[in-house]
Design brief:
single chain, mainly alpha, 2 helices
């Protein structure tokens, strides 16, 4: 009896394996000493992400408009 494995099954298994093994490979950096204040990154970074999403949406809308005009 020969075992047949399709490429989609192989890719799915590989992705699931990586997905389940990834958390064990990632570790957060150790905490700072008491003399250092921790600073959140949220302030300007969230605005940059929002601007990037807006710019991408604008470009997609323009691209779809150009295809409709042809």
């Amino acid at each position: 009896m020969k075992l047949k494995i399709s490429t989609t099954q192989l890719v799915t298994f590989s992705l699931l394996f990586v997905l389940f093994m990834l958390p064990s490979l990632l570790h957060a950096q150790p905490g700072f000493g008491d003399d250092t204040d921790d600073v959140p990154i949220d302030g300007g970074l969230s605005l940059l992400v929002a601007a990037g999403v807006g710019y991408g949406a604008k470009r997609l809308k323009e691209k779809k408009g150009m295809k409709a005009a042809k």
